[in-house]
Amino acid sequence: MNTTLLLVQALNGLQFGVLLFLVAAGLTLVFGVMDFINLAHGVQYMVGAYLGAALAAMTGSFWLGLLLALPAALVFGLLLEWLVFRHLYARDHLSQVLATFGVILFLNEGVKAVFGAAPLQMPVPEALSGGVPIMEGLLYPTYRLAILAAGLLSAGLLWFLVERTRAGMLVRAGASNAPMLGALGVDVNRLFMLVFGFGAMLAGFAGVMAAPILSVEPGMGDNLLILAFVVIVIGGIGSVRGAFIAALLVGLVETIGRAMLPDLMRLMLDPSAARQTGAALASMLVYVVMAVILAVRPAGLFPVRR
Amino acid sequence: MRWRNAALPLLIFAALALAPFVGFGQGHSLTLLARAMIFGMAAISLSLLVGGAGLVSLGHAALLGVGAYAVVVLDHARVTEALVVMPVAIGVAALFALLTGAVAIRTSGVHFIMITLAFGQMAFFTASSLAIFGGDDGYTLYGRLELGGSRLLENRLFFHFACLALLAGTWLLVEALLRSRFGRVLRAARENETRARAVGFAPYPFRLAAYVIAGAIAGLAGVMLANSAEFVAPAYLTWQRSGDLLFMVILGGLAGPHGALMGALAFVLIEEWLSHLTEHWRLIFGPLLILCVFFMRDGIAGLLRRG
To answer: How does it sit in the membrane (chain A) (predicted)?
Structure first.
């Protein structure tokens, strides 16, 4: 493992981290403000990717696809909220887990019925194809750098919205004490809806951005969802800052672990076994990190003060 | 209403015992019933956690998988005697539950859900990495376990009744546990932890014991699942499977182990029926789950009690 490869893997890790953050941010806000476990947040990422791929194919342009997919993902999120989720806020976590699990089953099967089980392709936009020389003799795909930039930009925007605007102040107030906020005359249900729609749009945005480099297929959101949960638990539930740092951490650990562990294993095992064992260990690594962090700091790295 | 808690399961057990002789004796029906009964065991063990102790685990399938993979490892080493394999599998599953439970039970609420999910995922990835046991593709057993050297479990009818006996035993055990002092402490700690502590019961060892017992039962169910299919794959350990198990428990109702029993049977039969109806049966199954959560708060057991 030389430095060039490590640099590439670190960039890949950061890029995966910002995608994770876009999904985790909505999850942690919904969780923090409404105390609502939304397992279906991962399928919103999937729906975003499908909307992006389908709309891009229809309009023939990546940018139009992206532009149209965002409001579509927002509307879709609000529709789900209206149909299912709003009836669950007052219920216990078990009911929320189950009902949103039902939404996952439905939507995973739904996209399979509409688009087929085979992965969809979404082309990388013309302007962002090709690579950027980041070191001598090393081209890094422009599109991946664009994802990184877009993710960091969204993170900055989100930070500004949550920390510096009136709506963000209400969201933070809702996260620390929603009933009190309601008593002070804020329409908490509308705030919930706003947070929910925004979270769905962020997840959808992540889906569209990921579509050209990952395969768009049914169930693509499930694994990401679990990782996003790991992120918000490590970061401290309800904390956007915690989610950001934890997402980058998980992205780096996952990607670099995946790249390096098989090589490390090769020192002990034969190549094919090393590849498989290394990959499995790498997948496990983030859960080990989570278990250790939870054992030391049960409320996560940046617990929201209540 | 207590008699119903016992009468219903007895009725179901009687129906299951009669099933092979009243038109459900063909291979396919028996396989389906065996699957339903095995998931019934797993769901009952989960209901001890969810209903009894208030611990919502989203990693229960991992315990099932540990039991199944114990069969695989021993099968690979040509150990196929049920009297050896079953205790080993139960022991390994209980040990896995003890180690993971010792960490998980320190947390509560959402964090417990998440950490059991994390342990489940670890088990899943471990299973997919076991290259000698087929990795992602799974492992086909040489055959079913032998019982005292004979190949009795190959007999469909015998296997059916073995599953039924284990299911009934599981129900009896969990029912007895929940009625005992142990079960009352679990419930007290679920209802109000502060008060339980105030009267002198630290919930931790009770919850851990419940977790280990549930793990042991799930491990045994895993052994039976592996033998029923004569095949084991990492897919047994996915978190979606854990979600299915939770659905079975809730579908049946949290009032007691009889709820989980009915939930598991209903789940497997509805799944089978719908998958015959259409290829995209999950399009119906998903909304069905949501409607159950919305409108059937006490599950099937609750409906029967009201009716």
So the answer is: Multi-pass membrane protein
